[in-house]
Design goal:
The chain is α/β, with parallel strands linked by helices. The chain has helices at residues 70-75, 90-97, 117-126, 160-167, 213-218, 236-251; strands at residues 17-24, 33-40, 43-46, 104-110, 132-136, 154-157, 179-182, 189-190, 200-204, 222-224. The chain folds into two domains: 17-89, no CATH class; 104-251, 3-Layer(aba) Sandwich (Alpha/beta knot). The chain has a seven-stranded parallel beta sheet, sandwiched between helices.
Length: 267
């Protein structure tokens, strides 16, 4: 699904009442069908599986595990997912994402119920981050996540020290993951041009106050995003998106990916 920070992207028309026909050739993922992507009063998605119950695909995938959700096949799929995952069960989507998540992690401090965390989680899902780490309060504002937290691995750490302890053995071979802070502090290093490690943790501070003193002292480096205007800083959710995209631009293989961010059906 394309669009901005909101969930109201439109397709093929105006005034929230349009339909756009799309050929969806899913190859090895499932049968070739033509789906209706419909926008009605701000809702986007597809209707019931074309052809009715007699045309439904097998519920299980090639590996024998459940893939299609009979309720979605019968009534349509209005979830905020890319077309590749239409009609799939939640568990099947998560399992498929687990086969190609990237080795970077995102951590954000949550000392005052930061409203930006939901946006950070949504962006982490879009870029297939390995995990999102909530540091501080366990409860966080999920509103901006637009339900993407259901598809994203999320881990809680009560303190920065706990996050660092976890990172010491979280590498692919049991070694440490470097933790990099993102904040526009004196002495910080520009993110632009910085050799971001392929496996790492990007740590963000609380909105308005930035990284805590404990976090500043613990990270390998503090990176800032170069700015050219009059504002002193940018929104924490926006900063997280820029930093994640910097990692993607350096390390991710974008071949075989569509404009929606999903792998093409043959991927």
């Amino acid at each position: 699904m394309s669009g901005g920070a909101g969930g109201s992207a439109k397709m093929g028309g105006v005034d929230g009442e349009s339909t756009a026909r799309r050929d969806w050739s899913v190859g090895p993922v499932g049968p070739v069908v033509s789906l209706e992507s419909v926008v009605v009063e701000g809702a986007i998605g597809v209707g019931p599986w074309p052809g009715g119950r007699s045309a439904w695909p097998e519920f299980t995938g090639p590996d024998g595990t459940p893939r299609y959700d009979p309720d979605l096949l019968a009534h349509g799929d209005r979830r905020n997912v890319v077309d590749r995952y239409r009609y799939w069960t939640l568990e099947a989507v998560v399992a498929d994402l687990d086969t190609h998540r990237h080795p970077f992690h995102v951590a954000i401090e949550n000392w005052a119920h930061d409203m930006n965390i939901g946006s950070v989680v949504r962006t982490a899902n879009a870029f297939a981050a390995a995990e999102v780490h909530i540091v501080g309060r366990r409860r966080w504002n999920r509103r901006g996540a637009m339900v993407t937290d259901r598809y994203q691995h999320i881990r809680h750490h009560p303190t920065v020290e706990d996050l660092l302890t976890w990172a010491q053995t979280a590498g692919s071979t049991g070694g440490p993951l470097p933790v990099l802070g993102i904040d526009n502090l004196p002495g910080s290093v520009p993110l632009e041009g910085y050799p971001l490690p392929r496996s790492c943790v990007l740590l963000f501070g609380q909105e308005s106050v930035g990284l805590s003193d404990e976090a500043r002292a613990a990270v390998v480096d503090v990176l800032h995003i170069v700015q050219f205007g009059s504002t002193r800083s940018i929104n924490a959710g926006a900063a997280a998106a820029i930093a994640m995209h910097a990692w993607v631009a350096r390390h991710a293989d974008s071949s075989g990916h569509g404009s929606t961010g999903a792998r093409t059906p043959a991927g």
